[in-house]
Design brief:
The complex is a heterodimer of chains A (378) and B (119). Chain A contains 17 helices and eight strands. Chain A has helices at 2-6, 34-38, 46-53, 58-62, 68-74, 94-103, 125-143, 160-170, 196-204, 221-224, 230-251, 254-257, 272-286, 297-304, 321-329, 348-355, 361-376; strands spanning 24-29, 108-112, 149-154, 176-180, 209-212, 262-265, 305-308, 334-335. In chain B, the strands form two sheets. Chain B has a six-stranded antiparallel sheet with strand order 1-9-8-4-3-2, with no helix packed on it. In chain B, strands 5-6-7 form a three-stranded antiparallel sheet, with no helix packed on it. The chains are: A alpha/beta (378), B mainly beta (119).
């Protein structure tokens, strides 16, 4: 039986989540709003003027036509009262995220943006660069009063040279521990040579690159436009976006060229074993078309790619799939990620519960805290 | 203990690039003639158990020192599995991309006009 084969001796197991020294979240989110970003743009900024013309509707700033407004409407009581706490029209600042993390038993965390996960889909380069800088300034102001949170600075992939300047600008900030390269809608894909300045800057500042996929936008190319509904889009987007991006990064030799750690967020870990074997398979078959690599793709993944756990997307009640995935990937490459404050949050006890019998206490401590601390240098 | 299998007479080979596949004691062994020498390996792809040695022989594509220009070396010493395209050096049995991936090889010995696979 799969679950029996995975089990570790009882003496090596963690008892419960309370037995962990600490829990560090590799994937929380603050939630910025257009209004919040405006406060960090000069009055004379053209981007500020453009934002003001959108009536501050995030879907007019970050995305084209989308069924997302319908999804949001469903999460109200019909009188505009929210029934969930992740309505993107409301700011959720770092202090509130920290409070929710504490309630969830999380000691420390790394936060990402929300709206700006869609930054790759902004058509206007000047606008995108301005949004990134405004977000980073807003984030830094938010983190000033939150000693338990640090963050990934977002960069605008539309202009890699400006992205590099932005990395240099914020890299010395104690609260900035990594770079968020918005994964969804990223075109050309991130292995393209145009991103070299961005990777140069991340490497020279010794900052990992996080890539979090999102949904509800024009994220995954033309196929999105035929999604009949939000769930038809939502189910496949996160994983497929990451596989597209990572194939590009690997086969174009980014990890051969740069010493950068990558943190892959938002798609869970279920796709990783399948994806890894597929990469190796095609490298062994068609490696002559992939001259940039000197070893199997799986070797690079082991060396410098990390996967956050959320969403677990696993059946309840002792199902062994999640534990099997962690063991196949290797616990040293898996990072606990909650996705707080959003509705699909995976709490620490859920993750621990699924792994307590199948990885050692030491490995579980690494998944729940130490791996993230090592990757981000916390 | 050394095993020795008679695979074919040398007359059965049609010059360099030709091959003979023979079933011996339930296993298929292929012998290739390449630049006047004989090389023997199992007709079995470690990927998904395909009939490796029934595929095409190929040279290899690599990049030059600056990592840009593609260079094709037309020395056809790689056997390409007809099922999924994994390729192996007929002399070493190893994948050109990762030497940990290898198919079994045999020493090919010619005695009195017969090619033997020896292991």
């Amino acid at each position: 039986m799969l679950d029996n084969a995975l089990q570790v001796p009882e003496a090596d197991r963690l008892g419960s989540v309370e037995d962990l020294d600490r829990i560090v979240d590799a994937d929380a989110q603050v939630q910025e709003t257009p209004e919040a970003l405006l406060e960090h743009m000069d009055d004379s900024s053209g981007a500020r003027r453009v934002i003001s013309l959108t009536e501050l509707r995030h879907d007019m700033i970050y995305a084209g036509p989308s069924s997302y407004p319908l999804y949001e409407y469903k999460r109200t009581d019909g009188d505009d009262g929210p029934v969930a706490e992740d309505d993107v029209s409301e700011t959720i600042g770092a202090a509130e995220v920290a409070e929710r993390a504490t309630e969830a038993g999380i000691d420390d965390g790394v936060v990402n943006p929300t709206l700006n996960l869609g930054l790759s889909e902004v058509n206007n380069d000047r606008f995108a660069v301005a949004l990134a800088s405004a977000y980073n300034d807003w984030l830094l102001s938010q983190l000033d009063d939150c000693p338990n949170l640090v963050g990934n600075a977002v960069v605008a992939p539309q202009h890699p040279e400006r992205a590099a300047e932005e990395i240099d600008r914020v890299a010395d900030e104690d609260d900035i521990v990594g770079i968020q390269l918005p994964a969804s809608g990223l075109m050309p894909p991130p292995g393209h040579r145009q991103y070299e300045p961005l990777y140069d800057a991340a490497e020279s500042n010794d900052l990992p690159i996080a890539m979090k996929s999102t949904v509800g936008n024009k994220s995954f190319g033309q196929q999105y436009w035929w999604a009949q509904s939000f769930p038809e889009d939502f189910v496949y987007q996160h994983g497929f976006v990451q596989m597209r991006n990572l194939t590009s990064i690997l086969f174009e030799g980014i990890p051969e060229q740069y010493d950068i750690d990558f943190v892959i967020q938002g798609a869970g870990i279920g796709f990783v074993p399948f994806f890894t074997h597929r990469l190796d398979d095609h490298y062994l078959e068609l490696g002559y078309e992939i001259p940039a690599l000197s070893q199997l793709p799986s070797a690079y993944l082991s060396e410098s790619f990390y996967w956050t756990t959320n969403p677990m997307n696993q059946p309840a009640g002792g199902d062994p799939q999640f534990a099997a995935m962690v063991n196949m990937i290797g616990p040293e490459n898996v990072l606990f990620g909650s996705d707080l404050p959003h509705g699909v949050t995976d709490l620490p006890e859920t993750v621990v519960d699924r792994l307590a019998d199948t990885v050692t206490a030491g490995e579980l401590a690494a998944v729940m805290a130490e791996n993230t601390e090592r990757v981000y240098g916390l | 203990m050394t095993e020795r299998y008679a695979i074919a007479d040398v007359d059965e080979f049609d010059g360099d690039g030709s091959r003979v596949i023979s079933e011996v004691e339930g296993q298929e062994i292929a012998v290739f003639r390449h630049e006047g020498e004989y090389y023997a390996l199992a007709n079995f792809c470690i990927h998904q158990a395909g009939p490796l040695c029934e595929g095409a022989l190929s040279g290899s594509i690599s990049t030059d020192e600056d990592g840009w220009d593609w260079v094709y070396d037309d020395e056809e010493r790689y056997i390409v599995c007809p099922w999924h395209g994994w390729m192996f050096d007929i002399e070493t049995g190893r994948s050109p991309k990762d030497e940990r991936y290898a198919v079994p090889t045999y020493d090919a010995v010619v005695e009195n006009g017969t090619v033997y696979a020896v292991r």
